[in-house]
Design goal:
It comes from Aquilegia coerulea (Rocky mountain columbine). It is found in: Cell membrane; Early endosome; Membrane. Pfam families: Mg_trans_NIPA (PF05653). The chain is an all-alpha fold and about 350 residues long. Among the domains are: about 20-115; about 140-285, no CATH class. The chain has helices at about 1-15, 20-50, 65-90, 90-95, 100-110, 120-140, 150-155, 160-185, 190-215, 225-250, 255-280, 285-315, 340-345. The protein is globular. It starts with a helix and ends with a helix.
Length: about 350
Amino acid sequence: MATAEAHQSWTLAYKGMSSDNIKGLVLALSSSFFIGGSFIVKKKGLKKAGASGIRAGSGGYSYLYEPLWWAGMITMIVGEIANFAAYAFAPAILVTPLGALSIIISAVLAHIILRERLHIFGILGCVLCVVGSTTIVLHAPQERMIESVAEVWDLATEPAFLLYAALVITAVFILIIRFIPHYGQTHIMVYIGVCSLVGSLSVMSVKALGIALKLTFSGTNQLIYPQTWAFALVVLTCVLTQMNYLNKALDTFNTAVVSPIYYVMFTTLTILASVIMFKDWDRQNPTQIVTEMCGFVTILSGTFLLHKTKDMSDGMSSRLPKHIDEEDGFSSEGIPLRCQESLRS
């Protein structure tokens, strides 16, 4: 009897991905390909513009007249739209970690197209990211069935998530008022802490807004509800805050240091917020949860390895000051993560 119940539980746990999860997965993968490729196209455009005008690294804006650079920007916008749509179909615990794949695509394309060296350990980092992403995809929870934006609002106003949101907002204000004036220029965790904490709330709001738009396009108008516009206001506020303090972090510290630390904190807090608000783990057994965490750690390991080996190939330490590639005005510290490059653009 116990064996039969265990077998039934195992069968239900691994019944496969839902159609919504598959749509979210395809959109997230498409987003990674578009965004990863956009870095290369924009860099080619910057090189071409720099050859006939003042480089971007020297304060020039000739790249604004370069069609190749605009092609890269359009490609990135398409990728961000796909990423936004992915949150409407799949849980954040599935979509967010897949952002690391854009780094792999950028690194591989830079090696092939731009002739930038990819260290052997960088290849290992790519493999680790792929293995970790595959593990998370195969064990991700099914998307919660939601009928209206009011239902998302009810989830967001439950005591557990309200407590999380209150702690996040309090911590952000303490960092901004108390710590940034004294430690912002010397401690990397101050700026990144603000970006990561606010980012976890922004992703939850993006997901809520995405669900509202998905339901609206399917025939159930959600734009008439004030909750939809409340989520839109939260998205706007959070993104502007992230953009401000992420740019401060990137301007003050080395990108090769900022990128992996921000990715770890942002993704970890986003998954935590999703687990609290949408109760992703309530629909999973302990085996799936542990497997997802192992996949996440694997992605983190691959991300750190990619950034460290990029420094090795550039012949510089991640603790050295930032410098600009004299040829095209790009920082030679590695390719930024999806969320960073998007906000900077």
